[in-house]
Amino acid sequence: MIVFDDIHKRFGPKLVLEGVSLTVAKGRILFIIGQSGVGKSVLVKHLVGLLRPDSGRVFLDGVDITDYSEKQFYPVRKRCAMVFQNSTLFDSMTLLDNVALPIRKHKRLRDKVARREALGKLALVGMENEALRYPADFGDGMRKKVAIARALTLDPEYVIFDEPTTGLDPISANIVDRMIRDLSDRLGVTSIVVSHDLKSIFSVADRIAMLYKGQIRLDGTPEAFRRSEDPVVQQFISGSPEGPMEV
Amino acid sequence: MTGVGADRSSGSTGSTGEGERADRPSRIADILASVGAPVFYVLSTVGDVFKTFGLAVYYTFRGKKRWDEVINQCYQIGNRSLVFITVVMAFLGMILIFQSGLQVKRITGDFSQMGAVYLPLLIRQFSPIIGALMIATRVGTGIAAEIGSMVVTEQVDALRMNATQPVKYLIVPRFIAGIFMTLVLVVYSTLVSFLAGMLTAHVYFEVPYDTFWDISLVRWADLLIGVTKTLCFGMAIPVVSGQAGLAAFGGSEGVGWATTAAVVNSSLAVIMLDFVVGGVGFMVFPTN
Ligand SMILES: Nc1ncnc2c1ncn2[C@@H]1O[C@H](COP(=O)(O)OP(=O)(O)O)[C@@H](O)[C@H]1O
Ligand SMILES: [Mg+2]
């Protein structure tokens, strides 16, 4: 279980998170939704120590990890993988080396063993035949799949997906959605998905939290969101240009 | 050691264009904020630079180095700055010798000491600082752009997720390569500038080559000061520029800011270090 407790975060003069409290239950898929720039990425990066809160606490399975050092976060990052918005494969490495990187770094395995494991993970996403090619050769959909394979190499308990379907064609987006669902159903992986893709939200999420003006506006099931009478929530899920939300 | 971070912060608060009719207290608060924010940014940047420097030194002596990357960086630094340095140092040599030659002609007409006086000046002062400033522009921007774009595309976050220290992985190879290549390039600068001066003296003032080529006035102290400066600059440029890259945020615009910050801050660092090392050098080895 993940608990964010009253997280505040500012960058210089800019207040981004103003008291965010949120709980993520084990084995479930939580979607964090909200407009671009509200701080969804900022929030999820607090879980793995890529950002530190100004105040507030972060708990992972009951352990307060807020004040961990960078080194102490390494095991946390092994358990909570992250698929970044930009895929962030390393351009200078082959797909295989990209996927093998976490195995090498976290498990400190020999090259040969690491590569064999990595190849297995690439096979999971159907990319094993392209293992020796470079990321630049592929489109966004395939790169995203490889990025997901890389995140799964260490068999994490938690996976953070930052806008996994943004910029993908509808078919790739569906494949990614299904992968997220499968991870949870078959392996019991807990997923936090940052998204504003309405289709993914309502087809995949077990629970949704909406971030608005630095706070959680609504936290509930997809059903609760559909029925919500909050104009802000309504405007977001209907995508209407008119409403209380400032664009 | 920073000007650019400060410009950006005050620029963004100032650009709202509001509050012209603000009542008194908030205007005072505005003024305090507009003074305070840049000071804060300068101090925090200086702090970050020293932190990065500490980490770079630490990881230079601890842990495995990416030697292939060090060699790659050496090549990049040399490749980026060789032509630039050659042209600038050659012109500098020609200009300095031509101008001082004109003065010598008017006053004493004795050209015999020209090369002998020029060389220590070049070793102790001109060559390290001009060379380093050029490396700061040419190489510093490259470092900030590379690292900055890795930051804004979250590749640096991805490194950290994979238990990799960004300073160790990205800055240390550039740090080692920077120290080595700055030394090489400054020695090369000295040579180019001296030879260009020698040629100029020969063509305009008919100074024989072997008269100009006179190393008798170069003291060990000049060499020591020159090399010390060069090593300091070689350490400062990759650290300051790398830190500017790591501090980047917000898309390609952020990378632009980072490269500008890298040039401004590493040039400032070079000038300040020159002043400090030069001053200490002068106190330890006073020129008679
Ligand atoms: N390192 C940083 N420095 C300064 N501002 C930042 C930084 N990271 C994010 N921000 C700001 O925080 C806000 C929230 O960003 P983000 O979490 O990326 O939004 P999103 O909800 O689209 O993921 C943005 O306005 C962004 O400019
Ligand atoms: Mg985001």
Brief summary of the model shown:
The complex is a heterodimer of chains A (247) and B (288). By secondary structure, chain A is α/β, with parallel strands linked by helices.
Number of helical regions of chain A? 9
Average of the residue pLDDT scores of chain A: 91
Number of strands of chain B: 0
Order of secondary-structure elements of chain B: HHHHHHHHH
Going across the major beta sheet of chain A, what is the strand order?
6-7-8-3-9-10
Structure notes:
- The complex is a heterodimer of chains A (247) and B (288).
- With 247 residues, chain A is an alpha/beta fold.
- Chain A has a domain at 90-148.
- Chain A is built from nine helices and ten strands.
- In chain A, the strands form two sheets. Chain A has a six-stranded mixed beta sheet.
- The longest helix of chain A is centred in the C-terminal third of the chain and has 18 residues, at 170-187.
- Chain A is globular and about 55 Å long.
- The relative contact order of chain A is 0.17.
- The mean pLDDT of chain A is 91.
- Chain B is mainly α and 288 residues long.
- Chain B has one domain.
- Chain B starts with a helix and ends with a helix.
- Chain A binds chain B through residues 11-13, 45, 48, 50, 70, 74, 77-78, 81-82, 84-86, 88, 90, 101-102, 105-106, and chain B through 9, 12-13, 37, 153-155, 157-158, 160-165, 249.
- The structure holds adenosine-5'-diphosphate and magnesium ion.
- Adenosine-5'-diphosphate binds next to helix 1 of chain A.
